[in-house]
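One chain is below:
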Amino acid sequence: MSADKTAAGAKAADIANLMADGALALDERAQARLDAYMLLLRRWNQVFNLVGASSPKMLFERHVRDCLAVLACLPEEGASLLDIGSGAGLPGMVVAIARPGLTVSLAEPRAKRQAFLRQAARHLALANVRVVGERLLPDDPAQHRRLGCFDYVTSRAFADLPSFLALALVYCRPGGRIIAMKGPAVESEIAAWRAQGIGLPATLRPYRLADGSRRCLVVVEKPS
């Protein structure tokens, strides 16, 4: 058995353990697709450095498992999601794998990352994924009309919170939700956002990675 296949099997066991503690409910097909996604990402990462130097365990714990935290804020099906600055598909591709009933658009302006996302969608047979190969702008009405609005808008380490929310609010439908994945500096970013006089409801959902690193989901509701 190859080292890649051995690592993939270990990752499947980790995902199963996460399901067992009640945090997730992933079926076997989703687990297999997550394994295949991680293998493909590792191969591409050796050439294009999509996520920086990362061992199989670090790739799972610090990237994939981190992105699975978003699922607690999402429905099982029947909604659309836009992942802005998707990069290697974090969290958008992970969400598309775990929630096949959602329609997921991955916005990524960089050509090499677009190529990876398209290859991953084909390789994993993800019919619910669309790659948007352009940089999204908050003040481009033509782009907004072309892409439309979404029930959910996400990002992970895309930009500071005020800049991301200014863009995400344009693409989030009235009554929809914006989910920003942030690190330990989230309090200062929220303070900067509030300083702009924006009073939208926001919920903080703090959590920790396996190594103890602090993370937080900032969930903002757009008024209907």
Remarks:
- Residues 1-16, 18-23 have pLDDT under 50 and may be disordered.
